[in-house]
Amino acid sequence: MHYLDHAATTPVPEAVADRMVEVLTGQFGNPSAQYPMGREAAALVENCRAAIAAILRCKANSLVFTSCGTESNNWAIRSALWQGRHIGKHIITTAVEHSAVLEPLKALSQEGYEVTYLKPDSRGNITAQQVFDALREDTALVSVMLVNNETGCVFPVEEIARGLRERKSRALLHCDAVQGFLKVPCAPADWGVDLMSFSAHKIGGPKGIGALYVNPALKNLRPLLFGGGQERGLRSGTEATAQIAGFARAVELRMDHLSEKLGRTYYIKAYCRTKLLTIPGMEEVSDGTAPHILCMSLPGYPSANIVTDLGEQGICISAGSACHKGKASHVITAMGLPKRTAAGVIRISFGPETTHEDIDALYEALKSHQANRFPML
Predict the structure, then answer these.
(1) Is the torsion defined by CA of 282, 287, 291, 294 positive or negative?
(2) CB 211: neighbour CB atoms within 10 A?
(3) Active site (catalytic) residues
(4) Do 233 and 305 sit in the same domain of this protein?
(5) End-to-end alpha-carbon separation of the chain, Å?
(6) How many CA atoms lie within 13 A of 350 on its CB side?
(7) Residue 78: how many CB atoms within 10 A of its CB?
(8) Does 251 reside within a domain?
(9) What digits encode the pLDDT tens for the residues 252-287?
(10) How big is the CA angle at 189 (ends 187 and 192), to the nearest 5 degrees?
(11) Can you give the CATH number for the domain in which 190 is found?
(12) Is pTM, for the whole model, over 0.90?
């Protein structure tokens, strides 16, 4: 198998799985229990929290564990708007956010909120100035992702945070950093971001565990879940100790020689881009600078067919357009690409394990697909 879909999820290293099994079988106490096994589990959770927070250069108590990036995004949005309920009901976001942001905002628009969606340019980029131009006195929330999951474009979150402060805006800033953590610079406390979302399974961790950074200046943050008062009363529910341990171990492994791993990923991406552009008609859709995502198109050849064909050959990529009944994704639609280009978008995404052989197999399979399939008119 040639796995080239790391932006969807990542392989779990054996060391991460081993750590999780160790916790599941030997450290299975409830962190809320007062006997030694419970206290041991509670200490494990806090040690993992501190380890991840250290990488983000934030205080450990500003990081709250959640079940996934989607929960983190939903909670951040709802809580930020509750926090800013006296400011107004205007929200600024981009038209290319993940559905875990866009769907909550869609629901909120039915509850009386007004959402401004910033459109990207034809290459998928968003500027900080677009955010500033859309700011209003009643803007309560700005939500901008760090790395777009389809194009690999890195958005200027640090610049946006600085600009909001300079303009003395009362809006809170949320960032979905699920696709950017340990891929591009990410420092919520240093930047002045109020809320930032993370997920473990994008960096070699298990599915079912995420985190939310909460600026310590935000007092009385409204919980999304009420119950037993875990996570300092912010996120009730018995802590998923094995997943938390797996998250921390994945961070530790990814951080080991991280610069070398990222350099290797950049190199593999460049190699893939150069090779695929030798295929007649192949186009680069975006110049996204994240090291692990390459967005290309084979105009005239529906991406859903490409993904299915390559999948049968053991090559895993995504239809960057997330095709559904022939319709392009909201990201590709917002970029305003020509119809034939939009229909043929594919996303190739890489990890530290990706090899030249993986790219060469992809290249040969795409050439074969082009030779043996009739293009759409």
Answers:
(1) negative
(2) 28
(3) 323
(4) no
(5) 32
(6) 30
(7) 17
(8) yes
(9) 999 999 999 999 999 999 999 999 999 999 999 999
(10) 105
(11) 3.40.640.10
(12) yes
